[in-house]
Design brief:
The protein contains 10 helices and 3 strands, in the order ααααααααββαβα. By secondary structure, the chain is mainly alpha-helical. The chain has a 3-stranded mixed β-sheet with strand order 1-2-3.
Length: 326
Amino acid sequence: MSASGGTKAIVAALAANLAIAVSKFVAFLFSGSSSMLAESVHSLADSGNQALLLVGGKRAQRAATPQHPFGYGRERYIYAFLVSIVLFSVGGMFALYEGYEKIKHPHELEHWYWPVGVLVFAIIAETFSFRTAIKESNVLRGRKSWKEFVRHAKAPELPVVLLEDLGALVGLILALGGVGLALLTGDGVWDGIGTLCIGVLLILIALVLAAETKSLLLGESAGADEVQKIQTAIVAGETVTDVIHMRTLHIGPEELLVAAKIAVRHEGTATEIATAIDAAEARIREAVPIARVIYLEPDIYSESEAARGADPEATPGGPSTHPTGH
């Protein structure tokens, strides 16, 4: 996995969640707190999620094969989608079930200092993990808002870790609130309510992750800035005069496919056109290094054809949404 995959953030989150999961389960055994049990399962699920992200990053590095000529970069998207399923099923649904059972059959907490102490420790550990994820994300985020970063990031690992850590911190606060109210009132129902809130939170985060990774799995185009750089690079030479239409597709977080029909000069010879295409490909790779698969088709620009507009049947998925100047 490349540096932009956030390996450091994933490892930090994995270490924190394993330690927290053990401490929460011990606290559950001593206190009987359902919030602690739900939180221990949550941390265990998060640990499994980080392991899935690491496995996905490793498998994505495999070389291309005749059966998969564009490589395995999308495996990172598949494993990120699996994370959302695990978070929804193991984390969220279990917490809802445990919260319901606790409300239906409440009992007083025993050895209250165990869950309180563990929750304080967990908040400190999760804060460290969250801080690492923020630091790693800021390298790539630039001037984007956090919402834009999560929605438009092509590498899924950092958004996943960020949302997981945020959910973990909020969940710990909810668990602490549920335990605290149960201790103050002597009513174990509050512990169950806190557990239900944790379940709802995890399911909401899982749905957001599923929606974002689904978009990546379907195939997203390059960002607007990258599209502009590619178009500028194509027409920077003398032989290529315009971009008639273009398609871009992420075949992995750091791998971009570029396919374009380009207008060339009428008087150009086959050798000149081939040389111009090679030069254009070199300029594209220099401007956008992740553009690793490039197909440029030369054509003669026709004003009458341009006036007819894009042909929805010309390429799969309908007309291009990228501006081409015609």
